[in-house]
């Protein structure tokens, strides 16, 4: 394998290929076929799993990060993702994404194009993989590089459903910040016409997060755009409101 751009090899340093190999071996050693089959049945999409529980994946990531953090840069973590996002098993993809997120303070601008390429080529081909990667890594990227907020808005009209979902869930941890709320509502409105339950649910989740910071703004938005909004999105968006308010909003936003 050719060295990844920006990933510098030093004597004694674990390379991205070394870490990828350790992750594969550790996950294979902990594999539980029964759990794997249960997880695979949970998704509508075809997915492969080792059957390793999330806490065990997080523990593995914590151990490996402790061993590489003094030597690695974000570019090494990007190179790891290039390797493990090609693996079929969800846990391998998740481990790479979680390690990448540990380097969020130093993400380079080139991560944006990398991320779009991973998503558009179906290397993160489930809602779970997108949701592990985007809220932490892409959210941190947008906070560090706000000039890319305008660029990620174009993801909402991309033909690939995972790029579309990423345009929404990348803002999950930013949605309560006042400086990102206008972008959140603009992106939300741009996908109202998308007939895809994974987009509609992600949109409702995003609006719910925005509403935690400013419930009055969320209510105004829902009332002003009500008939245009898929019912799934509305139901997810209003989950934090009191029961009476939820019933009222469901009635007032109903398609006429």
Estimated share of beta-strand residues: under 5%
Radius of gyration, in angstroms, nearest whole number: 20 Å
Count of distinct strands: 0
**What number is the mean pLDDT?**
94
Instruction: Output the CATH class name of the largest domain.
Output: Mainly Alpha
Helices and strands, in N-to-C order? HHHHHHHHHHHHHH
Structural class: mainly alpha
CATH topology of the largest domain: Leucine-rich Repeat Variant
Instruction: Specify the overall morphology.
Output: globular
Number of domains: 2
Low-confidence spans: pLDDT under 50, at least 5 residues? 1-9
- Going by CATH, the architecture of the largest domain would be Alpha Horseshoe
Cα(first) to Cα(last) distance is 59 Å
Proportion in helices: 55-70%
Largest sheet: none
Number of helices: 14
Query: From the structure provided, what is the oligomeric state, counting identical versus distinct chains?
Result: single chain
Describe this structure in words.
With 256 residues, this protein is mainly alpha-helical. It folds into 2 domains: 1-104, Alpha Horseshoe (Leucine-rich Repeat Variant), CATH 1.25.10; 107-256, Alpha Horseshoe (Leucine-rich Repeat Variant). 63% of the residues lie in helices and 0% in strands. α5 (90-101) packs parallel to α7. The longest helix has 18 residues, at 127-144.
